[in-house]
Each structure stands twice: as structure tokens, then as C-alpha cells.
Amino acid sequence: MVEGRFACAEGPEELPGNSPATHHRTPPRTMPMEIFANHAHVFPEDVRQAGSIESLLRLMDECGIARAACFAPHRKNTIDAGYPEPNAWLAEAIADEPRLVGFACIRCVDDDAIARLEAAVEMGLCGCKIHPASDRFDILDEAAMDFYAAAEELGVVLDFHTGPHWYRIKHYHPLGFDEICFRFPKLKMVFEHIGGYPFYHDMLAVLGNNLPFGRPGHLFGGVSSILNRELQRLWYLGIETVGDAIFRLGEDMPIYGLDFPYNEVELIQDDLRQLRTLDLSEEGFAKLFGGNLERAINLHPGAEQPQ
Domain range for residue 103? Predict the structure, then answer.
């Protein structure tokens, strides 16, 4: 095994326990800081033109985003189009684009999953997107556990979709991640959508149970597709709940993500407007808008653990 190395359902307006006066301020701030955004799904142009790398770069320009972490497509979505290894396609496609870093996308219970992860590291990809519901597997399957062990050894950050997504919930309920955290205490993970509306408190419990109190840790909550009540009904949390999560878990937890191409320019601009009203320190905003993502990618596997 190669060594790890990187250079690189309609919800209410707010959930219980939020305090608007505590967690955000108005009017929005104007912040010149550079944004390094997570969570951009990209595709070969002949597979999904709206999700092409060129489309992503245009959106980044329109939204004032300096850099982004982009995810390879699922293999099942590209193999018939002539891209049998989408991770290799992504690595080659962004090799000369300094604004982008790449994450593999792997169904981690496949027979070749660990070999693909090792190959992704060799290609220079910085992490791995995991979507249990879309790929229809149990996050506690023993084959998945072997994959997590390999990722932990390699120092690869795993970015998980969490929240309802039209598959048997028992196979990807967020409370299952608590077992993964205990079995792999150095495994770096990002939990996108922080569980979504139905599972926010479960995801909060898992993060709080496994993060070191008051110190940076190795687990993160993905702030993506959770701020538009009308369009993101099953995942919507609202800005007050995002503030609540940061209040409870600290400024070292959140990572802002685009969820491109499913979110377009106006929606992302509105996300940024809302997030700039949060009651964070200047350092906290820098962490939300890229500092925590940078740390997740480059964090040494021996990160501090809860005491």
C-alpha cells in the first residue's frame, strides 16, 4: 500500500435551539478574503455540459471564488460514454488548472475500491467522494470498513453525502458514522449537508461525540445545499441552524461547498450572502471559506482525538 501524501421534506424556518441574535448579524459583511470552496461535481463535457470544468470555472468567476475542490463523477455514469476510469479523467483534466484540486469518487464496497483509491493518490487526487445512497451500499459493510482502513492509512479525506437520498435509510443513517469514527479514529471525514433536515441532530451528535472539545479535529460538516428552503427541502437547515452548529462544534468544523452543478450562480451568491451574516470571528470566516478544507486535505493522519 502506498504512503499517504498530499501537497495539496420541507423544513421549518429554523430548528429548535437556535438564537438569531446569537448566531448571525445583519447586514451582510463585505469580505475580501479568498474563497476555496468544496463540493463541485464535474463531468466530461460530452457527458454533462452544464457540469463541465469550463462551466465550473465560469461560475467561480461570477461568484468570486478563487479555488475549488472538484469531485470525479460516479463510474456508473461515465463508463458507457467512454470514460471507464473517471478518476483518471479528472486528474488529467485539471492537471494544468491551478485553481482546482481533485477528489476521486469511489463505490467503496467494490472489489477494486482500494486499488482505485491507491491509484487516485498516485494521480495526485486529494480526497475521495463517497455517496452511500446513490451507490446503494451499507456504510457499515465489512468491505467498506476495509476501504476506510486504507483511507486512514493513506491519509485521504473522505467526503460523505449525508441526509435522505432515496435509498434504505438503515444503510446510511448518520448514527452509523459514530461506529466508523470509533473504529478509525484518525480517518478524516467531511459530512455533507450535516445530515440534512431530518438528521441534523444525529449528525451533530456524531460530530460532537468524536471531535476534541475546543481544539481542531479531523471531522467536518459540509455547508452545502442547506440554505434554500424552497429548492432544498429535505436538506434545508437555514442560516440560524448553521450558526447553531458552529456555536456548538466550533469554527474548525464547517467547510463551505458549492454542490455544483446542481446549484447555479444566483443560489451560490445567495449562500455566500447569508453565510457572511454569521457571528464568526474573522479567522472563523477564513476557516469556513477554505481554511478548514485546506486543513482537511493536508492534515496529518495523527490528528488530535477527543479526550
Answer: 20-298
User: DSSP per residue over the chain, as a string?
Assistant: -PPP--------SS-TT--HHHHB-SSPP------EEEEEE---TTT-GGGSHHHHHHHHHHHT--EEEEEPPPGGGTGGGT-S-HHHHHHHHTTT-TTEEEEEE--TTSTTHHHHHHHHHHHT--EEEE-HHHHT--TT-HHHHHHHHHHHHHTPEEEEE-S--SS-GGGT-TTHHHHHHHH-TT--EEEEGGGHHHHHHHHHHHHHHHSPTTS--SEEEEE-S-S-TTT-TTT---HHHHHHHHHHH-TTSEEEEEEETTS-HHHHHHHHHHHTTB---HHHHHIIIIIHHHHHHH--TT-----
CATH number at residue 245: 3.20.20.140
In a domain, 6, yes or no: no
Q: Is residue 96 part of a domain?
A: yes
Per-residue pLDDT of the chain in tens (307 residues, 90 and over written 9): 333 333 343 333 344 334 333 455 544 445 557 999 999 999 999 999 999 999 999 999 999 999 999 999 999 999 999 999 999 999 999 999 999 999 999 999 999 999 999 999 999 999 999 999 888 899 999 999 999 999 999 999 999 999 877 778 888 899 999 999 999 999 999 999 999 999 999 999 999 999 987 788 999 999 999 999 999 999 999 999 999 999 999 999 999 999 999 999 999 999 999 999 999 999 999 999 999 999 999 965 444 444 4
* Number of domains present in the structure of the chain: 1
Q: What is the pTM of this model?
A: 0.88
